[in-house]
Amino acid sequence: MYSSVTHIFSQHDRDAIAQHIESTAIQDNSSFWTAGWPNEVEAALLDAVFSARATYGGTDNGVRRVISRWRAYRSTDQLDDLTELASFIDRPDDLAEILDNRQRVAGNSTTKAEAVAKCADVLAGCGVRAADQLLDADDQREAVTAIAGIGPKTWECALFLVGRRTPDSLRHFVAYVSDAVGRRVEGELAEILLDLAAESMGAPHAALEHAVWRYQRRIGPAAPLPSLSEAG
User: Fold this and answer.
1) How many domains does one find in the chain?
2) What is residue 111's DSSP assignment?
3) Do residues 141 and 51 both lie within one domain?
4) Which of 36, 69, 135, 229 has the smallest count of CB within 10 Å of its CB?
5) What is the rounded distance in angstroms from the CA atom of residue 162 to the CA atom of residue 43?
6) Which SUPFAM superfamilies match (predicted)?
7) How far is the C-alpha of 15 from the C-alpha of 181, rounded, in Å?
8) 127: exposed, middle or buried (C-beta count within 10 Å: 0-12, 13-18, 19+)?
9) Is residue 150 located within the same domain as residue 116?
């Protein structure tokens, strides 16, 4: 008889997931093997906005360079106060200068620096200052996605980077693991199997999830697969 408890320890599934990681998101070839920014809402917001429609880069360029420049400006190891970014709402060019980045949002309506300041400002208006206050809440989501050039994917990215796992992120994990094992894996079992994969690799779970999530998000939803019962 099928048991989800014993099934999650299937060596066949573990091998299949490990092989899928090897071919799609191996650590040596992926810039996304980081845990995100679980206690740094400023870094998460910068990452979410500046990674949209852009090359992520490595440790010294791209998105992480933007965050490094902001960290140097703030002179702190803890970027967890959105009011600091919101203070640039009336001087976005100064923020773009600090970040040394003048990329523009989708639609070209404004710079990403200005969009970040606007996001921080509206979130502060919703009572969000620190990472533990950024939630998958309607008022926060609506305030952020109402900003020109900021869509649902950017919002989901910010949530993911502070450690929130929404139904959207869970769907990506399900699609990734299902594709690896060749059948539909339901619900939180996908996260458990990724956790087992991370353990077998000696890798942080959050870093593996980040790499997998970014990969699956880029390629889009997988085609539906039969469940175990449907496959026989």
Assistant:
1) 2
2) B
3) yes
4) 229
5) 9
6) DNA-glycosylase
7) 9
8) exposed
9) yes
CB 115 within 8 A of CB 150: yes
pLDDT values of the chain reduced to their tens digit, one per residue, 232 residues: 344 544 545 788 888 999 999 999 887 777 888 899 999 999 999 999 999 988 888 778 899 999 999 999 999 999 999 999 999 999 999 999 999 999 999 988 899 999 999 999 999 999 999 999 999 999 999 999 999 999 999 999 999 999 999 999 999 999 999 999 998 888 788 888 899 889 888 889 999 999 999 999 988 765 444 444 343 3
Judge whether 120 and 44 are in contact, CB under 8 Å.
no
Residue position matching structure tokens 């799609």 = 24
Same-domain pairing of 146 and 46? yes
> Does residue 34 contact residue 46 with C-beta atoms inside 8 Å?
no
Looking at 161, 195, 210, the residue that finishes a domain is 161
Residue 63 and residue 124 share a domain: yes
- Kindly give, in sequence order, each residue whose CB lies less than 8 Å from that of residue 89, ignoring residues fewer than 6 positions away: 117, 118, 120, 121
Q: Which two tokens stand for residue 83?
A: 């009011």
How far apart (Å, rounded) are the C-alpha atoms in residues 60 and 156? Answer: 25
Same domain, 57 and 141: yes
Q: Describe the crossing of helices 167-181 and 189-201 by its angle, rounded to 10 degrees.
A: 70
Count Cβ atoms below 10 Å from residue 118 Cβ, excluding itself: 24
Considering the domain architecture, whether residues 149 and 93 belong to the same structural domain is answered as yes
List the Cα angle 70/73/74 in 5-degree steps.
85
Domain boundary among 126, 161, 196: 161
The residue segments making up the domain with residue 46 are 41-161
